[in-house]
Amino acid sequence: MPYRVKRASRSIFVQARGLRHHLHSWGDASLVHAGRPALVMLHGWMDVAASFQFIVDACAEERYLLALDCRGFGLTEWPATDNYWFPDYLADLDAVLDTLFPEQPVDLLGHSMGGNISMIYAGVRPARVRRLVNLEGFGMPDVPASAAPKRYATWLDQLKTPMLLRPYDSLEAVAERLMKNDPLLPPERAAWLAPHWARRNEAGLWEILGDPAHKRINAVPYRADEVLACWKQIEAPVLWIEGDRTTVGKSWGTRYSRTEFDARFAVVRDVEKHVLSPAGHMVHHDQPEALASILETFVDRH
Q1: pLDDT by residue (tens digit) across 216-234?
Q2: Are 293 and 196 in contact (CB under 8 A)?
Q3: Cα–Cα distance between 14 and 230 in angstroms, integer?
Q4: 146-169 residue pLDDT tens
């Protein structure tokens, strides 16, 4: 059985910071009131905004939901660049919110990279975020200053090499790739997501809707103390959700432990935590119904 969308999205485009930004939207502004602002969602690395469709379909009540394709992903314009810088994601979000909700706070949800963006943004702009939901946005290993020379050299070397992403012969192959990344993703959801995650090129092959330049190392080191300084300024209640099959070590090995993450997250003042099962890193694909139930209870709590 093919996956059937319960709530179809419509596309919104916002011109900001020299790029045409794309958002999927569900519902409309008439559903917004003081106790229920719009919920804005940010996807993870090498993902797209359409990835949140399964959560939207699982929500019990109608509300104004938007999901932003980050720069260089999905249908948002890709800048002419050889590298992507994390502060640009913050500035893009700020500019889009200024356009769509200039005088209103929003509820903010982010998965993985989107969770990291959301956490920093909520600390930098605390008045703009009423509720914050972090789906497996663990952050990254701290990079000491002593690593800077080697890191810059690696970055310079990578700039001389074109970055490529493997194309696929068919949408079925794209769906198989999605299920390889997430073994718990049902085939019908993978088949639905595939044409949103890739597009057909002139040669008839399917290319992932992510700029290959994202694969290059970031020359600016990730400094955990700077990130935590932002996290400490978060005023919104925070909902943390993870999957029971996720391990930090799978991504970072010995460079970043779960113990270190827990110590970092302790600086956030108001946190509600949930673990969903069975679920991996793509928890919004694996358990959308359970996630939507927890999400709605959290954001609607006065």
Answers
A1: 999 988 999 999 999 999 9
A2: no
A3: 27
A4: 999 999 999 999 999 999 999 999
d(CA 134, CA 137): 6
Task: State the total domains in the chain.
Answer: 1
Instruction: Name 133's Cβ contacts closer than 8 Å, sequence gap at least 6.
Output: 107, 108, 109, 110, 118, 238, 239, 241, 295, 298, 299
Instruction: Name the token pair of 176.
Output: 């198989």
How many residues in total does the chain contain? 302
- CA dist., res. 181 & res. 296, Å (int): 27
- State how far the Cα of 281 lies from the Cα of 214, in Å rounded to an integer: 20
Would the CA dihedral through 15, 235, 137, 49 be positive or negative?
Answer: negative
Residue 123 lies in a domain: yes
Strands 19-26 and 10-16: antiparallel
* Whether 12 contacts 69, CB under 8 Å: no
3-state class (DSSP) for residue 168: strand
Q: What is the pTM of this model?
A: 0.97
Structural domain span for residue 244: 10-145+223-300
Q: Alpha-carbon distance 218 to 35, whole Å? A: 39
Q: How many CB atoms lie within 10 A of CB 234?
A: 23
Within 10 angstroms of residue 180's Cβ, the number of other Cβ atoms is 10
Pick the closest to residue 53 from 167, 183, 188, 180 (CA basis): 188
Which residues are paired to 206 by β-bridges?
168, 200
Q: Residue 258's domain is classified under what CATH number? A: 3.40.50.1820
